[in-house]
Task: inverse folding
């Protein structure tokens, strides 16, 4: 049985407001995957395969199967493409995106389809080859529950993943299959022969990631705030950004409190959405 991380982001994943989405080079990620006992790692950066192609060079060195991949921003929501080695144009509809993944010999997984940010496919997740029914970064909990119920109702193949954006997140949640190479892995996933290891990321790990992102993206974010935010939002955003420069230190107590506050609010909001739908 091989344990896998099927949803992870390297330093090649970039954001708009905060530039650095993923923290860690592909080599560092593969080394960490080996350290935590993973047999395979899919690097699925936002709209680019550069990270996963870079990672392929280190697979033999660390004895980890590196699955080239990508997380595509389709017009209908995010879609993971596994065993994809070429860029796929974003903002096509879900069916076109999945077709492109298949044309390249890969499989499509619908990640966090009902997340509270509405970045997933929703019910269109049923069009994918498999559904990520457990995402360790889904703080509200209820979105994972809803996804699992739908996947089970329609007998769809299931996966679990960490949606890792930092080295400490890798392998928190895992998908396990009986396989020895990428071809077998894809077959087992598509056939639904998976075992899931489900664990949520701790608030501490998430807060550390947020602080590191802000520190690494400081100049980019400051420029974005100046160009896009008006008073008083600009003042508040700059003040919060500047706080990140004081970490590590006593200021971390404030970040911790904000992290727990955000988690509680996400849980309440996710519960309300789950009950009312």
Result:
């Amino acid at each position: 049985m091989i344990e896998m991380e099927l949803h992870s982001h390297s330093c090649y994943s970039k954001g708009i407001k905060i530039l650095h989405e993923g923290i860690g080079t592909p080599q560092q990620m593969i080394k960490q995957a080996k350290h935590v006992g993973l047999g395979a790692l899919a690097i699925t950066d936002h709209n680019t395969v550069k990270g996963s192609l870079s990672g392929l060079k280190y697979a033999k060195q660390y004895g980890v199967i590196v699955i080239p991949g990508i997380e595509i921003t389709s017009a209908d929501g995010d879609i993971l493409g596994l065993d994809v080695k070429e860029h796929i144009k974003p903002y096509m509809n879900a069916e076109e995106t999945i077709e492109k993944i298949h044309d390249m010999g890969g499989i499509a997984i619908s990640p966090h389809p009902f997340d509270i940010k509405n970045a997933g496919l929703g019910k269109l997740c049923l069009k994918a080859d498999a559904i990520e029914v457990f995402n360790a970064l889904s703080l509200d909990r209820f979105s994972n529950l809803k996804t699992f119920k739908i996947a089970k109702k329609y007998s769809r193949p299931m996966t679990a993943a960490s949606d890792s954006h930092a080295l400490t997140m890798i392998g928190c949640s895992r998908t396990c299959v009986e396989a020895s190479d990428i071809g077998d892995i894809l077959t087992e996933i598509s056939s639904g022969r998976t075992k899931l290891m489900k664990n949520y990321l701790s608030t501490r790990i998430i807060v550390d990631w947020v602080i590191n992102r802000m520190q690494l993206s400081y100049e980019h974010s400051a420029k974005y705030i100046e160009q896009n935010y008006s008073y008083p939002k600009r003042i508040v955003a700059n003040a919060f950004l500047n706080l990140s420069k004081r970490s590590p230190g006593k200021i971390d107590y404030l970040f911790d409190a904000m992290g727990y506050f955000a988690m509680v609010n996400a849980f309440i909001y996710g519960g309300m959405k789950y009950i009312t739908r």
Residues 2-202 form a domain with the TIM Barrel fold (CATH 3.20.20.140). The chain has a mean pLDDT of 96. The two ends are 38 Å apart (CA to CA). The chain has two domains: 2-202, 204-276.
